[in-house]
Model the fold of this input.
Amino acid sequence: MQKLRIVIKVGTSTLTHSSGKLNLERVEKLVRVISNIRNIGHEVILVSSGAIGAGVGKVGLEEKPDSVREKQALAAIGQATLVSIYDKFFKEYGYNTGQVLLTKFILDEETRYNSARRAFEAMLGYGVVPIVNENDVISTYEIEFGDNDTLSAYVAELVKADLLIILSDIDGFYDGDPRTDINASVIPVVSSITDEIKSFAGSAGSSRGTGGMKTKLKAASFVNDHGIDMILMNGSCPENIYRVLEGQRIGTLFLHKQR
Done:
C-alpha cells in the first residue's frame, strides 16, 4: 500500500446546521473516517472552517455579522469550541490533535515557511492530527488568505501532500449552476483549467461560508501547479473518502500537471 499524505479541508456549510450551530453528528463521522484513514497508514492534515459559525451559534446570533470586529470576536469564541470538540472526538478514536493557526505572511517568508513546515513534520512524526485554520482573530486584509479553500491549498503545498480533498456542500465542479440550471452536471475529471472551465465557476457559495466555486478553482490551480491532485466532493457523507482512496470516482478530480 502506498502511504499517502492527505490534506482534507472541510467547509463551514458542511460542519454546521442552517442555524449556524455545529452539526455534531457530521463532525463525529468526519473524525471517525480520518482516524480510520490514519489506522490504514496514511497521514492526514485537517483544514477546518467553522470557527466563526461555531461562535455564531454559541452566542445565539441568527446569522454571521458583516463587520470585521465582530467576526474576529466570534472566531476567538468559536475556535475554542471547535478545537475542543475535535480533540474530544479524536481522543475517542485514539488520536491526539495539534492546533495550527496561520496567516498568509507566515507562508510568504522563507524562514517562517520552513519553520511551519518543520512543525507540521514533527506533529505528523508524533502521530498527531494537525487541525489548521486561519488566524481570523488577528487577520487583516494584507495577511489573510481570505478563505480556507486557499489556505488548504497553501498547506497542501507546504507539507508536500499527495492529495487535497475539499469537502463542500456541492457534489463536485459543475458545467453550470445547479441551483438555477436543472441540466447542469458534475464534471468528473478536470485535466486542465481552461477559460471554459473558469467560466463555469460562478460566484459565492452558501451564506454560512466564505468560499464559492471560484475559490475552489483557485485552490485546484495552485496545487495542480505544484504536482498535487485535488478532489472536490460533497462532505455530507464523509465515508465517501474511503471510496476516493479506493480509486472510485467521487466528485471532481483536478489532475496535477505532469512534470
